[in-house]
Amino acid sequence: MNETNLHFPNIVASNISLDYKVRNRGGWGSRTQTHTVHAVKPLSFAAHEGEFIGLVGRNGSGKSSLLRVLAGLETPTTGEVYASSKPTLIGVSAALNPQLTGAENVELGCLAMGLSPAQAREAYDRVVELAGIGEAIERPMATYSSGQAARLRFSIMLANRPKIMLIDEALATGDAATNERFSQAMNELLDNAGTVFLVNHAAQTIENMCNRAIWLDEGELIMDGDAREVARKYRWFAHQLALGDEEKAAGLLAEAKTLGAAGYVINREGS
Length: 271
Ligand SMILES: Nc1ncnc2c1ncn2[C@@H]1O[C@H](COP(=O)(O)OP(=O)(O)OP(=O)(O)O)[C@@H](O)[C@H]1O
Known about the structure:
Rossmann fold; three-stranded antiparallel beta sheet; binds adenosine-5'-triphosphate; transport; Bact_Polysacc_Export_ATP-bd; nucleotide-binding; ABC transporter domain-containing protein; ABC_transpr_TagH-like
């Protein structure tokens, strides 16, 4: 990615946070209590044209919640999101019908996303080729494996050529050839001044695909910077946790935080 292309922000998140109110049911005879989960703690960033941003963090760290706020599916508890066009969250807005064939769903999905019938017809071959599910395209979607369904859904969403795309784990299900095609499709989107957010548990995927990464832990923004640097630090942290060395992991987290977030977005533009 050419650094000089990184100019205009497509999304600005200003001091956004998200709390969920959760009702805890106690044991037999005890009263129901309500408590608050701080899924995303106040954070800010700007995401620019041409940026492919990976979100990393352990389970429950707030990655999906952040995507839902960016997509406008959750109202942030504090702060605001400004976007240059409506972000598309993969998997949510495709109103697909499991009783219909993949081919019929391509048509339905394209129309549901606002393409005209002529545009839907024009997009059809592109979508089917990108999904790469072969003859299964003529079978009802109810018969699809979860990977095939995810690939078709993903390809339909791309047919609309969204400028801001939010992807929650969708790529985890593809084989190497599919992922290669998806990566090409996304590079096209990035070259056309788009911005992509990708949640993926594999730090390696983030390192390979993204040019920037944000690391969340317990809803807090730990690091925001070069994908390679963030992914490597996160992987080392996760490795220590997996080994059961919580003290070392806590030290790495604290160190990453000091390298941290502040200034990355503002400084990198030289503005
Ligand atoms: N609808 C909800 N109601 C209440 N709490 C929720 C809800 N959705 C998520 N949470 C809580 O918010 C926190 C962040 O969850 P979130 O799904 O955003 O994490 P994540 O990083 O995407 O996790 P994972 O990697 O496991 O998918 C967790 O503590 C989770 O239990």
